[in-house]
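Troubleshooting: if your tokenizer reports a length mismatch, compare against these two reference records.
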Amino acid sequence: MVGGGGDARSRTQAARGRRQKAASLPLDVLVDIAARTDPATFVRCAATCVDMRCRVKEYISLHGPLHLRHGDRFVLPLLRGHLIYRQRDWSMPKEELFLVDTTVPDATKLRMATGGGIPLSSRDGLVLARVGVAKELRVCDPATGRSLTLPSEPAFRWVSRINYVLIVGDHDEGVTPVGRHFHVVMAYLDTSQYRPHLKLRTYSSEHGVWGCYTEIQVPSLQGSRLQGCLNKPLVVGGAVHWFCLTDTGTYVLKLNVRGVKVMVTKLPKSFPHHGRHPKLLATSSMDGNVLLLVADGDKMSAWAQSKHTALWQQRPHVVINMTETILRFLDKVGGSCIPPTKPVQFNLVWLAERSGTVLINACDGFFWLDLQSMEIVRWFSDRRVQYMTENNIPYEMSLTAWVPTFSSTF
């Protein structure tokens, strides 16, 4: 009797296993379902196995651009890390480009990247860099190793500090050597005249040429003295944002690239306008409100602009203590830092727009702050690059071409 009952249970379990195996969905169906979800789910689906990644890439090549729900949300897995450029010897310049890959084990996080040149801008899986002895502008895709050298850029007369912005279009396989159409905007804010002017030239990969020279008056930008040039750009909803400081306050410029129109807003008097406070433009979501982050001692404040009225709030949207935030993270991961009795001094380096994370330089290392949770999510420290705070550019994978491997042919 006992033996018979055991055999019955074995047969029942075997039959249940066969039914479960027969009920599993084919990979093609799973990809089709994932393509109708949100970006984070789609990325997690692609990360499950090699077969799934192949099916995802095949699906994209057949169906073109994805139309995922909640596309305005940040997707943290798209953050790969950042690029660091270093010039070692001033008498005999030797250029070095490092890739800090925060998605791999510690032993391989930092490695040399070849052929990348000086990184100028990075967005949605592509990198704009100045390369070679001729200092040509080149757009490359580090994930595939493909690149496109732009025609000679038109020079602005008597201008040395130009702001470069890379704007990437939807995924369209095969339309350019790097896979997608893009624009490169050269911008310069000229305050030498009575009324400030924003000077522009734009390269379109679709047409393969630089566009006409454009000069836009910015009369609402007041002040007799500009404290520095245009700062690091933020691209939200297809528009480029910069902030700049004058002797009368802090202003944010919004450029509609297609319409070639500029709108200027001034931050309130309660905003810390002093140039000694590092500032960085950010956004609350992929298509959300614009934020201006301010570093003051060991505190970071976020000032929000209304998306509908374009007015800036009179008080910070949020203020966080970076000493507590960084030390809380290091305690959790077992890292070391300066003694907690001293406030952590930090610098705002750059925003990764797809993942919604801010690269911060502090404690002789780099930290990534998630804007949604206001918590540190990744960090990196290495003596070879701990003092290199210039030319740090975030690198994120494109959502539609995301593959959790990295080409060695960068």
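Reference record two:
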Amino acid sequence: MRISDAACLAGAIVLAGCSSGQDGEGGATASSPEKPGLAIECALGGAQTFQRDCTVEQSAAVEAVILTVRHPDGGFRRLQVTQDGRGVAAADGALPALVSVEGDRQIGVTVGADRYRLPATVSAR
């Protein structure tokens, strides 16, 4: 199996309700108690079980789509959507992002001791 092109991964996140968190764009407002972005499952710091505690936001850089995964403690990771079939790669930091296919609508991403489940379109190629 191969993770399809970057547009499919980014599109899946956008369709699921990801936003920039600005008022008027479907995100949380200053008076909203909700976190901006799409809620995703994560297992942080080597945790064995996943919790729906993280959020992911999408933004476009000059030549790439960047996903910012936010942790409940204020920490975050940035991932770059790739076009080579890997799905995502670490956009900053020294640790690589390891990607695995977890069904036809989800990928698993591991960076260091942190694990995330991201929505994605996966196709056989």
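Descriptive notes for reference record two:
- The first strand starts at residue 2 and ends at 3.
- Residues 2-20+36-123 form one domain.
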